[in-house]
Automatic annotation (TrEMBL):
Superkingdom in the source lineage: Bacteria
SMART domains: PKS_ER (SM00829)
Domain Enoyl reductase (ER): 11-322
InterPro entries with a match to the protein in the record: ADH-like_C, ADH-like_N, ER, GroES-like_sf, NAD(P)-bd_dom_sf, Zn-ADH-like_protein
Organism this protein belongs to: Bradyrhizobium vignae
Record-given protein name: NADPH:quinone oxidoreductase family protein
């Protein structure tokens, strides 16, 4: 029997159920993967609540990414062998012991990662890559302001921004979170509750402001960010965990600034070549030891609601993984 987290009614994580199902036979072109770990992302929470742009038909299993071992390869499934350690890419369906997928959804695990790290890598770091490289075009020497710098995508942005040669300013809500951001390359640290970040950014940059703003928070944070940007700045809209902000067109005009939406998954679906370049770079950097997700919490599958609450309550530092027993 296979365990899976099931969403039968939209709502809070506690509305989800852990149910058991028999394994089904493979169809031609399919592959069976024993899931060893699944990564949590904030869209999982939104999807279960019916608040995400993708709204799967009920019932469905949440979870966008996982890692595990190939246990069976169906007829006509090419390029995959039983025993392969793989990352599984999904739009939903990862919170389970076993997944039936196609070879196109599988990526070899980096040799430097364990299952939990592999299951929490591509979504966060892929979003940061797409934001900073494809959309923001961060250049060496520029100032990158990263909000929510201890979150999954925020910490990935700190790592990649530093690797690209930017001066990284990290904001977060606690010294513990900022210490992790510093360990991943942040040059300057700002605690939201100790100094208004827009004043701190101006102080750090001698009044010039940030060239690129990485914002997964939104709301007032986005609106205040427009008041500490340099000429030609790019404001990257990653998410809105803190609410939906409003763009002040006068501030954007005065600074010659751009607001850019970031949807890494959709961009790759519309332009597969773009996604292939991104994937190759992320796997190479992982194997070279340049990037590694910070997994602050590893919980068993049955603690899925508690794990999702860690994201909602912003208690995670980096990533949270469900680990199958």
């Amino acid at each position: 029997m296979v365990r899976a987290v099931i969403c039968r009614e939209l709502g809070a994580p506690e509305h989800l159920l852990l149910e058991e199902f028999p394994s089904r036979a493979l169809k031609p072109g399919e592959v069976r993967v024993a899931i060893r770990a699944a990564g949590l992302n904030f869209p999982d929470v939104l999807m279960a609540a019916g608040e995400y742009q993708l709204k799967p038909e009920l019932p469905f299993t949440p979870g966008m990414e996982a890692a595990g071992d190939v246990t069976e390869v169906g007829a006509e499934a090419k390029g995959v062998t039983v025993g392969d350690k793989v990352i599984v890419k999904m739009r939903h369906g990862a919170f389970t012991d076993e997944a039936v997928v196609t070879p196109a959804q599988l990526t070899p695990m980096p040799s430097t990662f364990d299952y939990a790290e592999a299951a929490t890598y591509l979504a966060g770091h892929g979003t940061a890559y797409h934001a900073l490289i494809d959309r923001g075009r961060v250049a060496p020497g520029e100032v990158l302001l990263v909000h929510g710098a201890a979150g999954g995508v925020g910490l990935a942005a700190v790592e990649i921004g530093k690797m690209l040669g930017a001066t990284v300013i990290a904001t977060a809500s606690s010294d513990e979170k900022l210490a992790v951001a510093k360990s991943r390359g942040a040059d300057h640290l700002i605690r939201y509750d100790r100094e208004p970040f827009r004043d701190a950014v101006k102080r750090i940059t001698d009044g010039r402001g940030a060239d690129v703003v990485f914002d997964p928070v939104g709301g007032q944070v986005f609106e205040d960010s427009m008041r500490c940007i340099a000429w030609g700045a790019r404001l990257l809209v990653i998410g809105f965990t803190g609410g939906i902000g409003s763009a002040k067109t006068n501030l954007l005009l005065i600074k010659g600034a751009s607001v850019l939406g970031v949807r890494a998954g959709e961009a790759a679906r519309r332009d597969p070549a773009l996604g292939e370049v991104r994937l190759k770079a992320l796997l190479r950097w992982a194997d070279e030891g340049k990037l590694r997700p910070n997994v602050s919490h590893r919980l068993p599958l049955q603690d899925y609601a508690k794990a999702m609450r860690l994201l909602i309550d912003r208690k995670a530092i980096g990533r949270v993984a469900l680990v199958m027993e």
